[in-house]
Amino acid sequence: MRIIDLCVPTVDGPSEATPVEVSVIDHASAPAALGLRQEDFPEGESISNETVTLTTHTGTHMDAPLHYGLRSGGRPAAAIDEIPLEWCYAPGVRLDLRHIPPGVGITVADVEDALAKIPYELNPGDIPLIWTGADRLWGTEAYRTDHPGMTRDATAWLVERGARVIGIDAWGFDRPFASMLADYRADGDNSVLWPAHLYGREKPYCQLEKLAHLEELPAATGYLIACFPAKLAGLGAGWTRVVAIVEET
Q: InterPro entries, from UniProt (predicted)?
């Protein structure tokens, strides 16, 4: 068995829109925080601790239906701690959409074409992985802006065929904010604002954002994806360690 890490690191830097703040109590200073002396511990080292301040959408993470709106499919939208765990462990299907330019919406035809080239027919519960190649920009400001995004119709097409979790190797699931905002200001049509996200108000599904290393997968199919989010009670998203599990003979 081989395990492939599909995550970006959780770290402060230009690829994140919000800061990551870390306060460290290291091995030398921890004794004082505990009311003890450094020499009270073997080798003069206590146990360390860190306090991290960040958003639930920092680093590789999963968006729950509650992120999209208060209701999903006519019922109260599920928070991240309410996501069925069986959604988070399923066969992965990498869809090669690296030819779609930044700022452009990925359509149903694009998804159908990617599946036809594998070739593969989606099964209920499969986890589609939208491969844009945008993770090559990780570590730069361009990572936040230079990527395509899913359209509402392409998202609906996957969910209607049984996908409950869909991943993308880009900063966001929809087109970049600047692209959506430009269209909205041009004609005032608010349907261009996060249409893939807001489809989740119609039918529940989860998004994995900020995936990475999809090129390391051995093929488009033939592995399991494990993507269990942190159990953050009542919240709309959670940090997620996403890995591919490949059986090797």
A: KFase/CYL, KFase_sf
Strands 105-106 and 149-150 come out as parallel
Q: Which run of H or of E encompasses 127?
A: strand 127-131
- Where is pLDDT greater, at 38 or 219? 219
Per DSSP bridges, beta strands 165-168 and 206-209 are parallel
User: With helix as H, strand as E and coil as C, how does 75-107 read?
Assistant: EECCCHHHCCHHHHEEEEEEEECCCCCCCCEEC
What is the rounded CA–CA span in Å between residue 38 and residue 32? Answer: 7
Q: What is the pTM of this model?
A: 0.95
User: What's the CA dihedral at 160, 162, 164, 170 to 10 degrees?
Assistant: -70
- Residue range 159-184, pLDDT digits in tens: 999 999 999 999 999 999 999 999 99
Enumerate the β-bridge partners of residue 22: 52
CA gap 72, 88 in Å, rounded: 19
Q: What is the mean pLDDT of residues 82-102?
A: 98
Under 8 Å between Cβ of 213 and 135:
yes
Element (H, E) at 167: strand 165-168
